[in-house]
């Protein structure tokens, strides 16, 4: 089963509350984005945003240029249905982040909760980082949340890579400054817990 088929099946057969990564609101993600102090017309992309409510919360806070990228059309459909008329305020991108074409030097903020840790192949991680370098403005902000060193070895039946703030920063290299990190104990809908690590970096301006 290829990646797209896998994720379409997940979102077609499970409700939001039946997937382990579900949170009613991505509070840490939202706060870290707000802490960047970017202006309300800043270009923000949520990679792997799927059916999460981060886009809703960004609109609620007055952000006017929000994009949501996900490999699953079904996940994006769920978000569009939830947002109703407000869905037209979002740019929806159905694509694999290792193959997508994104505008150059465009985004002020790149957010990813729980996509990067699925990239177990070094080549896929290299492509991902190349897209970030190309698409993020100089001085832009990137926030990536992945399973921490004590997190699960698998998610949704797939192998994952676990990170510390240092190893996550190491994937992105000397073009980025690690500004802040935090650990989150995520409570799944099933009553278990998972360790996430959030890394906030800035792209150097030269």
Write a brief structural summary.
With 206 residues, this protein is of the alpha/beta class. The chain contains 6 helices and 9 strands. It has a 7-stranded mixed beta sheet with strand order 3-2-1-4-5-9-8, sandwiched between helices.
Describe the structure.
It is built from six helices and nine strands, in the order ααβαβαββαβββαββ. It has 206 residues and is of the alpha/beta class. The chain has a single domain (3-203), classed as Vaccinia Virus protein VP39 (Rossmann fold), CATH 3.40.50. Strands 3-2-1-4-5-9-8 form a seven-stranded mixed sheet, with helices on both faces. The longest helix is centred in the middle third of the chain and has 14 residues, at 122-135. It is globular and about 45 Å long.
Please name the defining characteristics of this protein.
206 residues; 7-stranded mixed sheet; 6 helices; two-stranded antiparallel ribbon; Rossmann fold; alpha/beta
What is the strand and helix layout of this fold?
Layout: H1 3-13, H2 27-35, E1 43-47, H3 54-60, E2 65-70, H4 73-83, E3 90-94, E4 107-113, H5 122-135, E5 136-147, E6 154-155, E7 158-159, H6 165-172, E8 176-187, E9 193-203
Parallel strand pairs: 1-2, 1-4, 2-3, 4-5
Antiparallel strand pairs: 5-9, 6-7, 8-9
